[in-house]
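re the bet — no i am not wrong, look at it urself. input seq straight from the record:
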Amino acid sequence: MTTSRGRIDKRQAILDGAFTVFARQGYAQACVQEIADEAGVAKPTVYNHLTDKATLFRHAMEAAAQAALNERLAALEPLVEPGEDLPATLELVGYDLLRLHCDDRSCALRRLLYSESTHFPDILDIVRQSGPHRLNQALADRLARLALAGQLRTTDPALAAEQFMALLTGPMEARSQMGTRPIDDAELRDVARAAVHTFCQAFAADA
């Protein structure tokens, strides 16, 4: 059991180190030795776990996308029991989603997708399995339950979820200059508040 746990931990350290190096250097400039140093393991250990640099890149992207998804799914939890003030709960959720969207790992993940997708077209599908469509599905499920409870009016929760996410994240590429400009807390809250206001105008039961 200890050996198995140690192997899993070492693999995770390699994936985390690899993503850090790929994000910093780009795929072409990253080297396996640098990844090994970042992970705190010997270079042969990297090859023992992940056979080559391309495989390492794919798995590192997948792991980063899955970790990002897990955090976003947790951010949706307040919608399970939103209470009477649904707009306030949506603002809380929207702010958390924006904060996660703008963190360093998420920005790096998007930049790597943009820059490397022509060389690794399969990473679009790899990341998609843990990407926006999974989050939209989970959000649509929450919104469908709110519609059944009479707190929202929509016959298409999937569309409502898509539009909520678009209202949140749509302005952020320009505001953040494609992830190169930090967005402060006050600005994130302003964007979340505006997104929720527009969303509620379209979908709130009492709008």
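see?? The chain is about 75% helix and 0% strand. told u. also The chain has two domains: 1-51, 60-203. so pay up
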